[in-house]
Amino acid sequence: MNDNLNKNEKGRPFKMKVWLPALKAVLDNEDLRYLTDNELLFLVNRLLPKNERINKRTFINWKGGKFAPDEEIGEEFLELMEYAHIRQKQALGQKMLDENNMTWTKYAWLLERKFSDLNLKHISEHTNKNEQTTINIIASSDEQKKLIESIMNTEFIEIKPEALPIKKEVEPTDNNEDDELPF
Prior knowledge:
The chain is mainly alpha-helical. It contains seven helices and two strands, in the order ααααααββα. Strand 1 and strand 2 (about 135-140) form a beta hairpin. It is elongated. Mean pLDDT is about 75; it is low at about 1-10.
């Protein structure tokens, strides 16, 4: 084998050099709010000739940092992907926090499911024998743990439960009578 050949000449050409400008075009022109990685891959591939398109496995490898032939363009790819995720998070967050938006919960739901760092994995509530309520929150990351701790360390007001007045019980009637009912 000839050692003078560079990596691109030994196998298939490195497609990231062609794919990256198409990715930039999609990121500049598309509303990224709801796009999944598969949809982003589809939109970028759609702009390219068939021989320059990549498959899902290649996309996943690139996102995982596996792009040996050109480290500089690979780093640019990773930066663009991070930029796309930040833009998605900002757009959903702005929609959720919009004062005129009365349906903010749908954006909160999307944020929680799209971004694992915003997803509180498990919240449970227990009442013990002394009628005291304990709430357990299990965080899925260190960032969530810090958020939960900051919430727990804030001042709070304890609201005492009030007994509700009990209405007079209605005496039961005999349901065994053979009443004819119009059914």
